[in-house]
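Appendix B, example 12.
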Amino acid sequence: MTEESDAATPHQRVVRVPGSRRARLTPVPGSDPEPESAAAETTPPRERPKGAKGPNDDQLFQDVPPHY
């Protein structure tokens, strides 16, 4: 790789954010920087598995992991 070929193509830049510990990247040229929130809203609810029911299945099915 040469420095000349890298200079010809646009790249993301690192931007410092005042008052923040983390830096931010600029959007990739030609990309859509908006998040895809419509995909999360259209997620169908989980279906209950078929078969025998255990003593704690109702509680386990209602529990949601903390990252949701």
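Residues 3-8 form the longest helix (6 residues). The chain has a mean pLDDT of 76.
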